[in-house]
Amino acid sequence: MIDAAELRDAYDRQLRSGLDGPDTVRDQDGPLIRHTGESSGFVNAPRDLGLRGAELDELIHRQLRHFAPRSRRLEWKVRGHDLPAELPERLRAAGFTAQPTTTVLAGRSELLAPPPGREPALPAGVTVRRLTDPAEADRIAALEAAVWGEYHQSLADFLHGQLTDHPEGIAVLAAESGGQLISTGWLVLRPGSDFGALLGGATLAEWRGRGVYQALVAQRARIAHACGHRYLQVDASEHSAPILRRLGLIPITTSTRYIWTPPPLPRTGEDGPTGA
Questions:
Q1: Comma-separated ranges of CATH 3.40.630.30 domains in the chain
Q2: 105-253: which CATH topology?
Q3: Residues of the chain whose pLDDT is less than 70?
Q4: Using one digit for the tens of pLDDT, what is the confidence trace for 19-34?
Q5: CA of 203: how far to CAs of 64, 139, 151, 185, 209, in Å?
Q6: Residue by residue, what is the 3-state secondary structure of 227-239?
Q7: Stated pTM of the model
């Protein structure tokens, strides 16, 4: 039986490099892998950055100097077992804002993949299908915005790019009722990794607690298992964590996204400081 420490070690070895979106430029700055996209950026770090104090501050501020002239929003994800322990405090001091903490769950894909004919029951009139048309990316992003209260163009761009250029690396599932999208989620299949990542789980409030989300998890688990990914990993919200724990995933750490938004660039010309 696999335990949390073993899963966490595998997570640290295999899932620290991040995913590139469309038009994303990847480079390395010290211990960080930096991803610069059209509208946003993010950095990925090893468990221990190996820097403390002033050296850590310089690494953080170097990222701000990189992204500020490009007017890019920056995301830095910190796990609960990351080092140094002072990192969250120093990110906040540099102007980052912490988002709600999620629970990182992991476990065997086969435990969540029901055999054919034993899929979770769906409410009457609800169907689940795998989306393959890149044009549906905006529709998915709109549902995520309806559930979480914020629209991210970068999400639509990521899904559109994956479905267009790398459809073998993603499985996007959606539940619909009467032509309306009511729940969605996708599975990222990382080549050479033991893990499939469950992402994007979002269900309209009126459809929660009716087995829709569980059905999407089951189908994604079946796909992951069929593709040879022994484990599933998910950053689970307070809504999905209890469901996933009942299904057999176990907590291995926590995850907090720290967001930095650059100040507006100074205006120039006749309407700016150099104008009349």
A1: 105-253
A2: Aminopeptidase (3.40.630)
A3: 1, 19-23, 265-276
A4: 666 567 889 999 999 9
A5: 35, 13, 15, 9, 10
A6: CCCCEEEEEECCC
A7: 0.85
